[in-house]
Amino acid sequence: MTERRETRAWSVDVVETLVLLLLPALLVGLVTALESDESLVTGLFVGGLFGATLAGYRRAFYAVRTVDGIERRLRPRDGESDHWMVRVAEYDGKYEWLLAALLLALGIVVFALQFARLVG
Fold it and tell me: Which of 56, 81, 84, 112 is 20 to 30 A away from residue 67, measured at CA?
């Protein structure tokens, strides 16, 4: 029977995340600076947002070094329900009407204040 040796490839995870984070920022920043009147900082910001999104998606996987090469595996989702933010989000559905009414009232108040400031 053959033994499969598997180890986590931390360096692959770090390098891929950094590339996904920095490469879009640099590319969009340089293209924006060269091709339009926008500044390099604006392009770096927009590219950085896109890169942060890609790096966030990359966090769903982890790299494993096997005898066949590097494999990416989906991170297990066990234990996430213990996080306090997940418990807060799991509220009782019978109170949704109350939440909707409160948000509607808040929206009306904010609209009225903005309208009064614009008119007055």
Answer: 56
